[in-house]
Write a structure and sequence with these properties.
- The protein has 84 residues and is mostly helical.
- Helix content is 65%, strand content 0%.
- The protein has one domain (2-83).
- It has five helices and no strands.
- It has helices at residues 2-11, 22-40, 45-55, 62-67, 75-83.
């Protein structure tokens, strides 16, 4: 299952050799990790990213950050936020 989730990134590996800088490559890896972890926790990746990026500026404690981890978020919690 883990191999299948990273297969698209392995296939595109040659394209990502030219990330520009090591920092750019690290940023890409972090985003891919967030997306795949959201999928593994049955969350829609785009909605999850919107959800956490909306809340990150107000997070100030370890508990605030832990609450944003995909396994701590219920799907209904994200839907309430974005559907009104």
């Amino acid at each position: 299952m883990a191999e299948n989730s990273i297969r698209p990134f392995v296939i595109g590996r040659k394209n990502w050799l030219f990330s520009g800088t090591p920092d750019g490559a690290e940023a890409s890896a972090l985003l891919y990790s967030l997306i795949e972890t959201a999928k593994a926790n049955e969350l829609e990746p785009y909605a999850y990213l919107r959800y956490i990026f909306d809340r990150l500026p107000t997070a100030s404690s370890l508990e605030d950050y832990e609450a944003l981890l995909p396994w701590n978020i219920a799907l209904g919690q994200m839907k309430r936020v974005f559907t009104g």
